[in-house]
Amino acid sequence: MNTLSRLGLGPKGQLEVRRPRAESVPTLVFPPACTSGGLPLMEALKQRQSQREFATTPLAEQTLGDLLWAAGGVNRPALGGRTAPRAMDSQEIDVYVALPEGLYRYEPAGHLLCLEVPRDVRAETGNQDFTAEAALDLVYVVDNSRVQLVQDEQREDYAYTTAGAMAQNVYLYCASQGLATVLRAWVDRGALRAAMELGVGQQVLLAQTVGYPEPDPVA
């Protein structure tokens, strides 16, 4: 399947509106993250891997919330500290979640999702077929307006460093919980940026597919 067909381009070369596959809710507030249990760190590191075959089963609300908390949630409320390091505490990386119900932005302070685009944009998050069918795709986006104190030539380095740390947190959470994931740089960033309706100064960095692993076929 080529890139243009994956983008759902209409006869005039414009993106067609893809309706959400389920009802879009403006806000989804998660229960507190479950910060106990799971695999020991060294076992999770042993199990960490990239997988590219996913079941279509959606993640439970608690699991989704815990996944996002692992990526970049608040782990030190008194300081507003996060689970992943960030240069100069600029908090310049936002995690967007592409679900069948629409595109959401994770808000760490409230541990909730805010609806940004009421359309299923999973197919636009990458050029691999599985992106459109897995439970969700994460998109790491930098907002350069938050890093004005960082020199221009260093901003991209800082942004990718933070996004990489967040993605590794997701890998370890998935390894601990028996989920499948793969980090992806093969992304049509211009088309995805348009689909996400991002603003000036926002830049797509990486995408990461998450879901349950596809069951082994019965012999």
How would you summarize what this structure contains?
The protein is an alpha+beta fold.
Layout of secondary structure:
Blueprint: H1 3-6, E1 27-29, H2 41-47, H3 61-72, E2 74-76, E3 81-82, E4 93-99, E5 102-107, E6 112-117, E7 136-143, H4 152-177, E8 180-184, H5 189-196, E9 202-211
Antiparallel strand pairs: 1-6, 2-3, 4-5, 4-7, 5-6, 7-9, 8-9
Structure, described:
The protein has 219 residues and is of the alpha+beta class. The protein has a single domain (3-8, 21-211), classed as NADH Oxidase (3-Layer(aba) Sandwich). It is 26% helix and 23% strand. A hairpin with a 4-residue loop joins strand 5 (102-107) and strand 6 (112-117). The radius of gyration is 17 Å and the shape is globular. Residues 1-17 have low confidence and may be disordered.
CATH architecture tag: 3-Layer(aba) Sandwich
Instruction: Count every helix, treating DSSP H or I runs of 4 or more residues as helices.
Output: 5
Q: What count of domains describes the coordinates?
A: 1
State Rg. Answer: 17 Å
Task: Report, as a whole number of angstroms, the end-to-end distance.
Answer: 29 Å
Biggest sheet, open or closed, and with what strands and sense?
A: 7 strands, antiparallel
The CATH class name reads Alpha Beta
CATH fold node name: NADH Oxidase
SSE order, as H and E? Answer: HEHHEEEEEEHEHE
Features:
7-stranded antiparallel β-sheet, two-stranded antiparallel ribbon, 26% helix, NADH Oxidase, 219 residues, 5 helices, globular, disordered N terminus, alpha+beta
